[in-house]
């Protein structure tokens, strides 16, 4: 398979794109890829590390409020569309795949105008601006949440789940003693994304002593910057703090409860692995989509939620205590969240891509 892949801006878009690439490689080892991303966002550093050919384009997102910056954004967008038509024509892919972020808009548009088959994926329960725009140009649209299916044309949309879920299931388990923790003790993993959250970290550190003498242990991942400020602090013996864990899903296989943000990739791993969780959604993301992602599970009695502004010692610790001591409630939560997981998401997407390619008139 020859595929152009595009996604950018955040790991929530980039890592699902990489999961799709890895699935295609697994099924068709001789596949060739070209990744089109921005010239100044995190994908420009991440993608080349995977030995994937990378072409940057200069494109920026539209501001939601009236701004003169939008004039420059429009000019960049029109130039990017022209550049993408040339790049895609030269590579001549079988399919063009977009996994979100404003960089996908000119790429998928150009592919559609060139008559290439196109697939886009929406990770969140709230549809992103780019995917809203691209829904008319995409041949097939994959979504992570069943509730999002009504936001797209019925003849194009399919429920795929998030491709990060399949990776989470396949990755080897990392034992807790790797971090100096007891393998046989109940464990709570607290992590607020790869960069952490100063607001949440500050609150938790203000009552970290309250975990002393609990009959469970805490693995608290703070993010690199925050860790430097607190790494020398004396902690309760049942609390371990780390700045960053590269393959978090490998550690998730060893824990009993997770306290986290509610980004789409995190939720896909939680549902695939069946991990009872307490979500603290980021209130700073577009359209408050993390809150809506979390509520998709909360409404199904598959997770708990604490809003960041309501996070206190009592609201968090009382909930952790309840879940780890009430076996009936815990098992009910675990059963419910496990029932939501789509465990073969990458495979569903791969089969959809193959169907698109085989139905292309060029193959008849």
Total of domains: 2
CATH class of the largest domain: Alpha Beta
Number of helices: 14
Strand proportion? 15-25%
Q: How many strands, which pairing sense, and closed or not: the largest β-sheet?
A: 7 strands, parallel
Summary, kept brief:
By secondary structure, the protein is of the alpha/beta class. Helix content is 42%, strand content 16%. The longest helix has 23 residues, at 69-91.
Plain-language structure description:
- The strands form two sheets. A seven-stranded parallel beta sheet has the order 3-2-1-4-5-6-7, with helices on both faces. A six-stranded parallel beta sheet has the order 10-9-8-11-12-13, sandwiched between helices.
- Helix 1 (11-27) packs across helix 14 (345-359).
- It is 42% helix and 16% strand.
- It starts with a strand and ends in a 5-residue tail after the last helix.
- The chain is built from 14 helices and 13 strands.
- The chain is globular and about 65 Å long.
- The protein folds into two domains: 2-162 and 343-363, Glycogen Phosphorylase B (Rossmann fold, 3-Layer(aba) Sandwich), CATH 3.40.50; 169-339, Glycogen Phosphorylase B (Rossmann fold).
- The protein has 364 residues and is α/β, with parallel strands linked by helices.
Keywords for this structure?
13 strands; Rossmann fold; six-stranded parallel β-sheet; single chain; 364 residues; alpha/beta; 2 domains; seven-stranded parallel β-sheet
């Amino acid at each position: 398979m020859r595929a152009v892949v595009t996604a950018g801006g955040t790991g929530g878009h980039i890592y699902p794109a990489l999961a799709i690439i890895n699935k295609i490689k697994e099924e068709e080892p001789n596949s060739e890829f070209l990744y089109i991303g921005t010239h100044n966002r995190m994908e420009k550093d991440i993608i080349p590390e995977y030995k994937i050919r990378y072409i940057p384009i200069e494109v920026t997102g539209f501001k939601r409020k009236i701004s003169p910056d939008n004039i420059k954004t429009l000019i960049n967008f029109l130039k990017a569309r022209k550049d993408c038509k040339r790049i895609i024509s030269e590579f001549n892919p079988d399919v063009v795949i977009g996994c979100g972020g404003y960089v996908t808009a000119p790429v998928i548009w150009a592919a559609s105008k060139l008559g290439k088959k196109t697939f886009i994926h929406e990770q969140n329960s709230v549809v992103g601006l780019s995917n809203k725009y691209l829904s008319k140009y995409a041949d097939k649209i994959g979504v992570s949440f069943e509730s999002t299916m009504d936001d797209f044309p019925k003849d194009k949309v399919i429920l795929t789940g998030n491709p990060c879920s399949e990776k989470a299931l396949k990755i080897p388990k990392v034992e807790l003693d790797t971090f100096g923790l007891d393998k046989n003790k109940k464990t709570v993993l607290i992590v607020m994304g790869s960069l952490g959250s100063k607001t949440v970290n500050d609150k938790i550190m203000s009552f970290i002593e309250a975990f002393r003498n609990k009959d469970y242990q805490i693995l608290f991942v703070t993010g690199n910057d925050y860790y430097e400020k607190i790494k020398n602090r004396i902690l309760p013996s049942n609390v371990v703090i780390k700045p960053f864990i590269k393959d978090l899903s490998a550690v998730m296989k060893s824990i009993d409860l997770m306290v986290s943000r509610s980004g789409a990739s995190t939720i896909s791993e939680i549902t695939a692995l069946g991990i009872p969780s307490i979500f603290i959604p980021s209130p700073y993301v577009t359209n408050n989509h993390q809150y809506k992602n979390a509520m998709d599970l909360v409404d199904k009695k598959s997770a708990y939620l604490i809003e960041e502004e309501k996070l206190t010692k009592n609201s968090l610790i009382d909930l952790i205590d309840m879940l780890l001591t009430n076996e009936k409630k815990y098992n009910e939560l675990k059963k419910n969240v496990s029932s939501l997981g789509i465990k073969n998401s990458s495979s569903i997407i791969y089969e959809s891509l193959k169907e698109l390619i085989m139905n292309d008139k060029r193959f008849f």
